[in-house]
Design a protein that fits this description.
Helix content is 22%, strand content 32%. It has 303 residues and is α+β, with helices and mostly antiparallel strands. The termini are far apart. This is Glyoxalase.
């Protein structure tokens, strides 16, 4: 007999809604989620209602499972002639809950939701210290009054800087998301991304560098060096700017042809100036998912 339940993770979150059509329009029109499965409407027998603390007069139930991007699905229940409580629990009530949605662009997401008439319970707040330092969050209400949350931490959370033994799962991380639909790129398309990477690292205009970065780097891309890990466009752009300041007359160029193996590419590079004085050399390895660089491993040759 097994000594544990062998749980792999959260499959779905279930919520009750008063109007199924309203909920589906909310999830599809605003979040871009899609209905995958539907059950019902079907009646529930008296014993089921008693075991689940339901009112005996409540009618048939319809259940829809919603594909909610990367992560757990949302199972939406709607009961005909519902005799249950019509008042949402307060935040300090037992059983109160909310769903947190990760966004790579907090300001953009808030502006969009407000344009759709969504009510917010405050303004985005960034945690200044502690385990969740760097996390920005804000609560809002679904049209039927359910409490929900937007959250973002493109540069990670404070606790991660302590090199913890375990790291919280996040929908922003590409690793482990094998169920995502991936669009395979040709070798030529991957080589073009690598070439643009080289252009980016030589670009000294921050605004131009940002445009290229948004085209070829995933918002939560990780750059892993021997001595550090940088996550997100802001951190990586800052590193590039610092490197350019350190070597103002140098630029990156190929040291060998680019190698491509499925969604992985390898590029050998050198950093030198017009007089061919070599300031460094090494290799970049790219992991490309959904058309953009998800991870960049940097290997610098020792002097």
């Amino acid at each position: 007999m097994s000594t544990k339940a062998n749980i792999l993770g959260i499959d779905h979150v279930g919520i009750n809604v008063p109007d199924l059509q309203q909920a589906m329009e909310f999830f599809s029109d605003i979040f871009g989620f899609s209905e995958v499965t539907r059950l019902g409407p079907f009646p529930l027998d008296e014993s089921w209602k008693k075991n689940n603390n339901m009112h005996l007069n409540t009618g048939a139930v319809t259940i829809k499972m919603v594909h909610a991007g990367t992560g757990a699905s949302i199972e939406v229940f709607s009961y005909q002639d519902n005799h249950g409580n019509k008042v949402h629990p307060g935040s300090d009530d037992i059983g109160a809950s909310h769903i947190g949605f990760y966004t790579a662009d907090m300001n953009g997401a808030v502006a969009f939701l407000k344009s759709k008439g969504i009510q917010f319970l405050g303004e985005p707040f960034t945690m200044p210290s502690g385990d969740t330092a760097g996390e920005t969050w804000v609560y809002f209400l679904a049209p039927w009054g359910a409490k929900m949350e937007l959250v973002s931490y493109p540069d990670g959370k404070g606790y991660e800087k302590n090199d913890p033994e375990k790291v919280l799962w996040s929908p922003k991380n590409g690793a482990g998301n094998s169920h995502l639909e991936k669009v395979p790129l040709t070798e030529e398309e991957i080589r073009k991304i690598v070439e643009q990477h080289l252009v980016l690292w030589n670009e000294r205009d921050e605004s131009k560098r940002k445009i290229i970065m948004e085209q070829i780097y995933a918002p939560d891309m990780e750059m892993v060096d021997r001595h550090f890990v940088a996550v997100g466009h802001k951190a990586i752009s800052g590193f590039v700017a610092g490197l350019q300041e350190k070597f103002p007359d140098s630029f990156f160029s190929h040291a060998a042809p680019v190698n491509v193996h499925h969604n992985i590419a390898r590029m050998f590079w050198q950093l030198s100036n017009e007089s061919k004085t070599n300031s460094g050399s090494g290799m970049d390895m790219f992991v490309i998912e959904n058309g953009k660089v998800q991870k960049l491993y940097v290997f610098v040759d020792q002097a």
